[in-house]
Amino acid sequence: MTAANVLFPIPHAQIVSGFTTAPAVSLAHVAHVALSDSNLGVHKVSRHSHDVVVPPYADSAHPAAWEAVFAQGSINPGNKTAPPGGFGFYMHGPETWRHELERCGGRQEVVMSYEVLFEDGWEWQRGGKLPGIYGGIGAFAYGCSGGRQESRCKCFDLRLMWRQGGKSELYAYIPLNDTNTAALLNVPQSHRNPDYGFSVGRGLWTFAPGHWTVVAERVRMNTVGHADGEIEVFIDGQSVLHATGLILRDTDAAESSVQGLHFQTFFGGSSEEWACPKDQKAWFTNVSGAILRAEPAHDEL
Q: Where is the Polysaccharide lyase domain (predicted)?
């Protein structure tokens, strides 16, 4: 598949507005931007660095990447006594794209993607986090993780997670209700964790070190009053997980929406058995996003 097809694994005619840092992608309505904090609307940056470097296996399609450095013993960034590892920030995309997101209103459907490379000889330990789409109502969208229980009806966070051996999952924080629980459990190999995120589709795909993997997420916000929200994960252009019948918001559609990517990666968990087993690195590039053409809402049918 071409770079355009794996970073935007949907019919390209559906794209209303998009952006990409991938030099090899050329699509109508998709603007090229540089891989930089200022161009991508990076904010709420953690104490750990995310330098732009020339990555391993650099070529015309991967000339630069954000580098994540994981020190031996590093773990969840909430642990201030452990050595630093990974990085974290929120990213809402270029300013014009952000404004387009805000104008989408009630019938919002978005695809966001990136490529990740784990170094040769990478050791997975018990698991760790990878970036994913986040959103909700204003500032409530931030911090929708870490076992948060309050105001969960006002936020969602759809990071991914690797587990032992590179087996992976969608690690979802979405509003807590019986409809969502049933919908996520309907995805094979899923289970509800008692205090933290919902493990969805664990092992439906596996990451491997030493080559670039394209991760894409598609989120369709539900029509308020209907359980018609969707989350889909694509790996290298192939759909590996599709959850339907979701309620991602239960309030005014103009208030609750996709806000961008929660670009976070670290080992953990929070306890020492999750800690990074040695000094190692990963790289992220070709960050992209697209707003898709809206379908009629229920009340317009």
A: 64-287
